[in-house]
Amino acid sequence: MKRLTLIRHAKSSWSEPGLADFDRPLNERGQRDAPKMGKHLRKHGLSPDLFVSSPAKRALTTAQTIAQALAYPSDAIRKLDAVYEASLATLLNVVHELDDNHSDIVLFGHNPGITVLANFLVGVHIDNVPTCGVVMIELAVDNWRDVERDCGRLLGFDYPKKNKRTAN
User: Could you tell me the pTM of the whole model?
Assistant: First the structure.
């Protein structure tokens, strides 16, 4: 069994119109949500073997923030160019190439890819993984290269606004 946790980057800033998409930082809400989701994940026992992230600033910052909350060394985050603005096929290739020595991996990326990959793996329909949203999936495989459509079971789907609603 493998476990893959998909996390969409936290809310990014659009305050600098000339800034390249790749370089957009987190906005105030993103800076607030990422540590909260990290604490929430720690509270629920997430303890991954490996963090993999898009190198885009907003995704990598989200990964580093959540890594800190989970006591995962931020310098060990594996940055993969292929994850930035990736299609389903590209994300699936990324998953297939993961090292089988790791059983519990967190992948930080972007929409629509994160939502499409989640739906592909678990055979449910999530309309949209919101910013800083987390989809936890248990995969009925022993090797990452064997990951295919509907091989996963949804363990959890959470996001900052959902936590806010259920906290009241």
Answer: 0.95
